[in-house]
Amino acid sequence: MPRTRRTARTARALAASAAAAVLLALTTGPASARTTATTDATADAPLPERMADTGGGSQLLTAEAPGTGSTTGRLTWWDRRGGRWVAAGSAPARFGAGGLTDGATRVQGTSTTPTGVYGLRYAFGTAPAPEGTRYGYRPVTEESWWCQDNGSSRYNRWVEPLPADCRPTEAERLAEYPTQYSLALVIGYNYDRPVRGRGAGIFLHVDGAGATAGCVSVPAEAMRAVLEWAEPARAPHIAIGTADGPTALTAVTRRSAVNR
Question: I need a labelling partner for 140 at 20 to 30 A (CA). Which of 10, 38, 92, 171 fits?
Fold first, then answer.
């Protein structure tokens, strides 16, 4: 074979080998580079995709505060579409005057909002249900109370009228809060098998004048939008937590019966 052909062939082989080496370096390069790329991709993923637990449904609300001492943050509602979580809406949120605390160890009367992942039981309000509301909706009457008496058989339940074993001083008369409870959703915190002293009456409701006594609150238009959006058949949950630390939304789970 003439020398010129052999030289060209060798040059092409060397170029192909160099290209393969570059490709190998890019795909299997230093572990630090691969880790950085993975971390960046994870950080860019929607919040629910970075969470340890979303409740298993295809709808989710996230209520996130900057830290455990915060009384304000943000509520976002999400849909699972085509295998991805997509934000459907967002609004400023308020939390308990005492900040946020782990729902599994919360103490009643501390005005703290429990972190964790919880189901949404039913809706209620002093106002009519927004058109399109699919959750069961209970209208508030003058006889509607939420029992928070640890000695009552109806602890952490809607009662109407107030039973004899639930003291009025240890219950909340819902009609006395026509603004906050104009529209609300019952958060399933400490609900299935209530633990006495852990807390009762944790809701997602309309904003009042300031921080809550442990609930999550949002502007009225946001509460209306959430009720029009939520579909019980899609098993929506609410995840409450902070931006980082042990109570971060990316860490909270339904660890016990208290957290359901």
Answer: 92
